[in-house]
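Notes, p. 3: input format for complexes.
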Amino acid sequence: MNKPEILPDTDIAGPRPRHTTTQVMVGNVAVGGGAPIVVQSMTNTDTADVKGTVEQVAALARAGSEMVRITVDREEAAAAVPHIRDALRKRGITTPLIGDFHYIGHKLLAEYPDCAEALDKYRINPGNVGFKNKRDTQFADIIEIANKNDKPVRIGANWGSLDQELLTKLMDENTASANPRDARAVTREAMVQSALLSAARAQELGMPKNKMILSAKVSAVQDLIAVYQELARRSDYAIHLGLTEAGMGSKGIVASSAALGILLQDGIGDTIRISLTPEPGGDRTLEVQVAQELLQTMGFRTFVPLVAACPGCGRTTSTTFQELARSIQDFIRDEMPTWKTKYPGVETLNVAVMGCIVNGPGESKHANIGISLPGTGEAPAAPVFVDGKKFRTLRGPSIAADFKALVIDYIDQRYGSGAKLPEGAAAE
Ligand code: SF4
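Output follows (428 residues plus iron/sulfur cluster):
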């Protein structure tokens, strides 16, 4: 019998080099040109409600959103923008604010110069900036105001509001061609052209490349990947990634992560947003958390310490293990805004919470600090490992609280202003 062939190692680990793009400054945040991939989010408050919008922007910023977009849909919203900016600055929040404009952006920006000045970037949708002969003048008006205020813009094409004139033109050309493509392929091409033609028009109007970010959002994963790959292949503008209308709960998270993960691995994307539909009464900051976790699990950035936990199985008969994993994870996320300044580098910490002896000690040894809880039939003892060595064994009803205290001690000694953990000093 022939031996099975083992193929040689091809050493293909890791993402492709980042696609080269032109760097854009949005307020104090660099996007593209090799800068770290930026996390952004969007409020769902009525922008005319200054207090509510300030609270939500502050919550998103606290969660780690590095830019926040707010909708500017009518006069009351435009009038509120400078007050929102001022209230945030008073609280020490300098997160850039982006105005989202549709249909009447040219009018609002012209009539509310304080709004135009307060925003750090304007988002324009080329599919609804104006129609027929008004399109060019209204688009030009926005670009002129952006140039005057020295603000960048995002030209954001969207599958749901695609430029219908352009789409019709491309469909007609396709029908008349010798080898017509399917309608979906033509629509994808219209998305790419909509973004690129608008960017070219903005450049003709005097806007430099380093003031423009492009996006072309679609709601289907395969279409999104194809559109962005084409956009990146044909230009070097900074790129904002996002799956539009991603949906609610796990569906939205999975779809966004699948699409954005592939593009990021391909080196495409300078800033990302995860467009999740919140559960009724749900927390808007979840979209920031998912974006951070996507970038961190893929190895692009570090934001918060990671908690590795096994899924549990028939060997875990109590809920202690799930409760401890959840409590450690929540504790870390809640404390991070303070830890960021108090414990520099703490975001690289790895914690493991494991359910039994099968993988528990092994996985815990790979973490900075890990615990292997007792599974069914095991002695009621939980070994704790610190930097790969067995450190202590916890017993009794207070295992969870004791482990949490050890994590806090570890963070304080490793990342605090005091000395590092002495190598193996306290090991059992
Ligand atoms: S480590 Fe133990 S409890 Fe966790 S999944 Fe593996 S076998 Fe199950």
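Residues 310-313, 315-316, 354-356, 358-360, 375 surround iron/sulfur cluster (CB under 6 Å).
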